[in-house]
Design goal:
Rossmann fold; 2 domains; 8-stranded mixed β-sheet; 14 helices; 34% helix; 23% strand; binds cytidine-5'-monophosphate
Length: 401
């Protein structure tokens, strides 16, 4: 996913420097070329050798030593960088960045690059809350740096507060957001995600195994690509994706209402929700009492949200439906292109290992309206999200008429 991208990873001298090792490793695993820059304090926490072994490149620790690249190193790297990530950024480093100092490889490169810079502050909570630190962060924002808020929780000191470096996965996800193409700039995208809950009584409902991961990945990626995103989500345990307006609903009827209210607004709709096809015909206002013998519950059909959007689709709108199947993937997927008037159907066999509910990966086939069919390899849900949005962007660019 990051193949061909050059990422500079600046590490300053805080306890959380050890987490930068995992950040480095995950960036490398995703295909990025990573060059690590360290302040001298950082080298007291983690050795340059560790980063060198993981990145496969020399680590810059001193601006005034021999040059690795035959030129002035920081100029050479600055011109090649697609992204700079500074994690952890200590209070001291933030102050020096805000002052525009350039007395170590991290601050010098931050001045020299023209690519996006992601800064992940991490420090003791009082230091973070101090007006001086907050003023420095505000100034960095003015300069266009992207600040990743520290997490709240237990600090290395044993105290609790806000100042923890976010987990490496969150830093890498934020880094990937900044590396995405901005090819959906200003586009209005609606995504449905998660399961729905169909209530029987105040304590019971019918639902399904959807976790919402696929839809959340699409919403996040679309926002990172510049879109204005509304995520209509059934109940999930997932955090709100950054930069996305989230509308939380429970039942299919609620989801239908929230989506249809935006039918004229949207340019793109992606139906990643596992909407319950039926709901109990009767909702019992009071908890149903246990009784001897079987219970018969009558179910009635829910509206089909994507089909309703499809029925009133206007030229230029792009609709993407999902097909989660256990048999006859091909024919079911093709049939959904017509029944939902969709432009793309993303189909997966949910019985296959690594695909479907609750996994972080998916193996999908994409069916196009013009008859084309693509079989994608096993990918992470983030990668699938970008693959879908690549095709959506192409359809939008072509006018989709
Ligand atoms: O017809 P089926 O449920 O297999 O179609 C799946 C696709 O339709 C998904 O995109 C899903 O989000 C959408 N859907 C919907 N409303 C329903 C049922 C499915 O929007 N009631």
């Amino acid at each position: 996913m990051l193949a061909g991208k050059t990422v500079l990873l600046g590490v300053s001298g805080g306890i959380a420097a050890y987490k930068a090792v995992a950040v480095c490793s995950q960036l490398v695993q995703r295909g990025a070329e990573v060059h690590v820059l360290m302040t001298s304090a950082a080298t007291r926490f983690v050795t340059p050798l560790t980063f060198q072994a993981i990145s496969g490149h020399p680590v810059l620790t001193d601006l005034l030593t021999e040059q690795h690249y035959g030129h002035v190193d920081h100029v050479h790297l600055a011109h090649r960088a697609d992204l700079m990530v500074i994690a952890p950024a200590t209070a001291n480093l933030l102050a020096r960045l805000a002052a525009g100092q350039a007395d170590d490889p991290v601050t010098a490169l931050a001045l020299a690059v023209r690519c996006p810079v992601l800064v992940a502050p991490a420090m003791e909570p009082n230091m973070y809350a101090h007006p001086a630190t907050q003023a420095n962060i505000a100034r960095l924002r003015q300069y266009g740096y992207h600040i990743l808020e520290p997490a709240e929780g237990r600090m290395a000191s044993g105290r609790y507060g806000k100042g923890r470096l976010p987990e490496p996965e969150a830093i890498v996800a934020a880094a990937m957001d900044l590396l995405r193409p901005r090819d959906l700039e200003g586009r209005r995208v609606l995504v449905t995600a998660g399961p729905t809950r169909e209530p029987l009584d105040p304590v019971r409902f019918l639902s399904n195994r959807s976790t919402g991961k696929m839809g959340y990945a699409i919403a996040r990626a679309a926002a990172a690509r510049g879109a204005e995103v509304v995520l209509v989500s059934g109940p999930t345990a997932l955090p709100d994706p950054p930069g996305v307006e989230i509308v939380r609903v429970e039942s299919a009827l609620e989801m239908h209402r929230e989506v249809m209210a935006r039918a004229d607004w949207l340019e793109v709709a992606v139906g990643a929700a596992a909407v319950a096809d039926w709901r109990p015909a009767v909702y019992h206002e009071q908890k149903m009492k246990k009784q001897d013998g079987p219970l018969v519950v009558e179910l009635v059909r829910n509206p089909d949200i994507m089909a309703d959007l499809g029925a009133r689709k206007r030229p230029g709108q792009v609709l993407v439906a999902f097909a989660a199947e256990t048999t006859d993937l091909d024919s079911h997927a093709r049939q959904k292109l017509t029944s939902k008037n969709a432009d793309l159907v993303v189909a997966n066999d949910v019985t296959e290992p690594g695909s479907g509910f609750g996994t972080d990966t998916n193996r999908v086939r994409i069916y196009h309206r013009d008859g084309r069919e693509e079989a994608l390899p096993l990918l992470t849900k983030d990668e699938v999200a970008d693959a879908i949005l690549d095709r959506v962007a192409a359809l939008l660019a072509g006018g989709n008429r």
